[in-house]
Amino acid sequence: MRITTPSCGIPVSRELTNYPMQNVTLADGTVIRPLATHEERAEAVRLQEDTWGAGFSEKVPAAILLVAEKTDGVAAGAFTPDGRMVGFVFGLTGLRAGVLIHWSDILAVRAEAQGRRLGEAMKRYQRERCTAIGVERMYWTFDPFVARNAHLNLNVLGASVDEFVPDMYGTATGSVLHGALGTDRFVALWALTRAPDPLPADPALLLNAAVMGGAPAEAPGPGDPLSNEPRVVVRIPDDYATLLAGDPAVARAWRASARRAFMHYLHGGYRVSAFVRGGGSDAAYLLSAPR
Where among 95, 120, 135 does a domain terminate? Predict the structure, then answer.
């Protein structure tokens, strides 16, 4: 049985089998479906290596990808009409504090397929797979300094920031993307039992709020006082990868400043209430104190 229906702006054709929503076909013919063979799982491992580097210590091996699909997890690929895997998503399902949750561990899209909303489509596929079996919450992590990912997670998908974890995956993952600057991460929370509630992205929201950071030379020093205002803006470079490649010392200063602010405010009860990309040289998180 096959039905066609729009999914949040992404046209899909759903293949209904004995398991809810196994296959999704996007408008361009790309099919998102579970990994079905040893060869496909091996290709998913290679895709991880192509994305994060051959020495990436946190890659998920093929055997775990097999186990995930047998235990209500998700190990799925995005395949072009000619069968090439251009995307991959993996997560595990389990209990957290007695609640059924899904932890989305890895999502990767090949460079040739980026800019086509494939990452968003795979995340929505993952969400529907999870809601079909009664999962209430989905978690994943993202680097607060990757503005495009923050925009997708917070402004498009409607996830919220649950916590900030310094060096979530340690300081040496062997990835060319992570380098030697550590792995500070936001933990995203997607509540699956209600409609997504995207964060606002209006620059006007940043007015009349204390600003932490700014131009790199204005980043607060390690001993500078932190504002106790109820609304605080933490700025980040809009294109951190380019800054990191061009001036690692300045990139390190930005990250150290933001880490200090996130740890102070989020651990103190503030929450991320908005994320804004300025379209120029910077982006910003608005942190709001509890009411």
Answer: 135
